[in-house]
Amino acid sequence: MKKVIYPGTFDPVTYGHIDIVRRAVDLFDEVVVTVAVNPSKQPLFSMEERIEMLKESLKEFDSKVLIDSFDGLLVEHAKQVGARAIIRGLRQISDFEFEFQMALMNRKLSGDITTIFLMPHERYTYLNSTVIRNLASLHADVSNFVPPVVHEALKKKFPRK
Ligand code: ADP
Q: What domains can you pick out in the chain, each with its CATH number?
C-alpha cells in the first residue's frame, strides 16, 4: 500500500490545498494530511479547529485521506505513519527556493523519503492561507476560495460590528 504525507499549516484549508489532495489521491493509495505545529507562525485557528475543517472539507475522499498532526521532525513523522513520500504544492517560482532547500534537507535527514511537488490548477496559483485570512478580516467574500465550513468559521472569527 503506497502512502504519502501532505504536511502544512492549513490555517485555514483552501481549495488550493484540496486540489493538491485530489491529485495525490489519484497517485497513492492513502494520503495523510498532517497539520504541522510551526513555532514561527502564530495561527489564526487552533490545531483542533484546523483539523475539524480539514475533516469536513476532505470527507468526499473517505478512507483514502487521513488527517493528523505532528510537532517535530517531518521525516520522522513520515516514517512513523509509513509514508514513502512527502507531497508539497508548488504554486509559482517564488515557492521554489524555500521548497527546494527543504526537500534537499529532508533528503539529507532521510534518504528513503522522497519529496514530490504537485502543481494545482492555474486558478489556485495565487491562493494562499495568508491572503484568505487578510481578505476575511476585511469582510471580503472568500467563498470562491475556501469550502463552506471554512467560510463560516472565518465569518465567526471576524464578525461584522
Ligand atoms: P500556505 O500558508 O502557503 O497556504 P501551508 O503550510 O498551509 O501554506 O501549505 C501547505 C502546502 O500546500 C505547501 O506545500 C504549499 O505550497 C501548498 N499550498 C498552499 N496553498 C496552495 C495552493 N493554492 N495551491 C497549491 N498548493 C498550495
A: 3-125 (3.40.50.620)
55 is catalytic: no
Cell readout for 30 is 492513502
pTM (predicted TM-score): 0.95
Q: What is the pLDDT of residues 100-124, one digit of tens each?
A: 999 999 999 999 999 999 999 999 9
Q: Active-site residue among 2, 41, 59, 139?
A: 41
d(CA 35, CA 53): 11
- Note the pLDDT tens digit of each residue in 13-24: 999 999 999 999
Cβ of residue 88 lying under 6 Å from some atom of ligand 1: yes
Which of 128, 129, 133, 142 best tests ligand 1's pocket when mutated (most atoms within 8 Å of CB)?
128
> Does residue 12 have its Cβ closer than 6 Å to ligand 1?
no
Q: Dihedral of CA 33/39/40/43: which sign?
A: positive
